Amino acid sequence: MKYKRILLKLSGEALMGEKQFGIDNERLVQYAKEVKAIADMGIEIAIVIGGGNIFRGVQAEEGGMERTQGDYMGMLATMINSMALQSALEVQGIHTRLQSAIKMEAIAEPFIKRKAVRHLEKGRVVVFGSGTGNPFFTTDSAAALRAIEIDADVILKGTRVDGIYTADPEKDPAATKYNNLTFDEAYNKGLNVMDMTAFTLCKENNVPIVVFDMNTPGNLKKVVAGDEIGTLVEV
């Protein structure tokens, strides 16, 4: 295996599946099975999931709500997704722990780095909820921060597109895919890999990012094995 300890970043929108809002149970089960396939291989897995299928702080701000309040609501949305994913993983027989950046004793442990690493070493899948616990930071930034803290080998960003393209492939049929990029190349070309805070954290701490299509069964396993799936961004 190319990677031993990974941070899997999923968007909240990915959980919608074919729905317009909320959580598609079929998509949830599919993701849980993908994670189980690599957990059974001994890969240590941490997961950060967004909340955009339920609520986005940026949208709230556009509607006149104060940004800080909207962002905290978005963090709670990530906890709903995290709990749903935790439940789906446990149905597959995977031992999990949910850690939250905001105290929620009834449903999650507080985020403690040493505890998180110990869970990973014991083969448990750790889901990190509530983003960073601070407004004005996205779940991309949370993924980068947690990956650095737990010393993950890589961030695997699961999307509905099979990598990074010269333009949006859903809008521009002439867009071509990159197989490999450096952080500097991605920045200079203005490619939207992650938000700039997350991107800078990854670059400065030498954490590679692989952007790949999570919706194709078997892709996660292939990425972990080192197959050339998606786009690899590294220093």
Indicate how many domains the architecture comprises.
Answer: 1
Run of helices and strands: EHEHHEEHEHEEEEHHEHE
Mean pLDDT: 95
Low-confidence stretches: none
Give the overall shape, derived from the CA principal axes.
globular
> Which structural class fits the helix and strand makeup?
alpha/beta
Share of residues in strands: 15-25%
How far is it from the N-terminal to the C-terminal residue, by CA?
A: 21 Å
What is the name of the CATH superfamily?
A: Acetylglutamate kinase-like
List the strand order in the largest sheet: 4-3-5-2-1-6-10-11-9
Oligomerization category of the chains in this entry: single chain
* Name of the CATH class: Alpha Beta
* Main sheet specs: 9 strands, mixed
The level of helicity is 25-40%
Structural Rg: 17 Å
Compute the number of helices.
Answer: 8
